[in-house]
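Replying to the earlier thread about multi-chain prediction with a worked example.

Input:
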Amino acid sequence: MNWSDFIVMGGYGHYVWSAYGFTTVVLALNIVIPLRRRHSVMRTLRRLSRAEAGQAE
Amino acid sequence: MSAPSLFAAARGVFMRDVTVALRRSTDILTPLVFFTIVVTLFPLGVGPGPNLLRTMAPGVIWVAALLATMLSLGRLFSNDYADGTLEQLALAPHPLSILVLSKILAHWVLTGLPLVIISPLLALQLNFEDQHMWILVMSLLLGTPVLSLVGSIGAALTLGLRGGGVLVSLLVLPLYTPALIFGAGAVSARDLTEVHLSLLAAVLVLATIFAPWAAAAGLRISLD
Amino acid sequence: MYKYASPKNFYALAGQLIPWLAGLTVLLLAVGLYLGLFVAPPDYQQGESYRIMFIHVPSAWMSLFVYVVMAAAGAAGLAWHTKIAEVLASACAPVGASFTLITLVTGSLWGKPMWGTWWAWDARLTSELILLFLYIGFMALQASIDEPRRAARAAAVLALVGVVNIPIIHFSVEWWNTLHQPASVSKVGTPSIHPSMLVPLLLMALGFKLYFFTVVLMRMRYQILEREKYSHWVAEVLAAEK
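Result:
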């Protein structure tokens, strides 16, 4: 497998790799963002339940 | 006392809307003036070359009509929502979709029809040829009701929301695409005019059947 | 089957499914990419640039598929008032919009070497652009209504109106395109499909589908936690996942 040929993609390398790169970024964001939202939701809910437990005392 | 018939109720809604709007004539004039200004801006933007303007005329007039209609969608339901009339309509023993259709018809008579009437004047400004004027008028006559019908769905869903006008535009503009394509196309594609107008008429029929129903559903959701 | 309509059970089920779906996704995408990038030969007409097809075409398919799922979920939410259906619809939107965006960008990158311009009013790209606006409208409508129930139901109506309109919009754009496009500009068409190209294409399509399921379930889980925050089982989940 000739790596430099692979990267150049017959002259279309810029286009092909930009396309694949953009796609990877978007698909990765769609994984990262829900994970972070989940984190912040859990954090908010924990804080809420602690506040309620504090009030109950 | 027996409830009025469906036709009487629908006519009552229509007449009320028209009467109220005629008393508040700025509601009617504003879209017209907007329409005129937008069409006037285009030559200022692209230069007065007569051939260019003549080519652009159908698209420009159609887009301006689209924007003017969209601006006026806000007042379709919002005044009645504010004073409680809308809830009364929803509670009435008549199908809400028919009453909504009456309101849409009133809206079109007050907004769309005036646009159709002054469109020849604006077309002349853009060097449009006289003998094809009837196609432009016909396309707008068939198309502006579609704009009111489809637009009512957006107005119903966004009732009472902040960010009102822009939000309605965002929701409704993609849905306007077929009307724009067939309407402006009828004028610019000379040998295919009848086909375009037929397609536009088909869109009008579909919209008349389904849009009031969807708008009524949207109203019920917004009113709950 | 119906016990999964309850948020609590669905949350647990989704949690179990996600790792398997993610694993399958990675597997399918890896094999698809390997076959598409390394094994498939260059195209007779388009050379190597056609390899963008392996992400462009599956993304286009997904952008439509997700919209249909979104509209169907919206319809289910309207008909049966189930929260799960509402959460599903809301979770679909950003993913569908992402696929639409990918379709547009990769289509543009595929088209540039073919047509010489970054954007051409090709029928498929124009339809995708309008689809993107439909997705954005859906998300904007949901975002501007504070009450989650009303937001979900209004957006559901919008999605249903949209799904009915999509064939009409697509037809009108195709029509418009054939009228106005000079013959010299060719569409971003799939090259004649040889099995060595078809197999990676289908694998990528399947991989994208599984990716969609994985990501949607992830989104649904945190949305369920948020909507059900006052219920007892959420408190238990929080305690368990310290």
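The mean pLDDT of chain A is 86.

Feel free to reuse this layout for your own posts.
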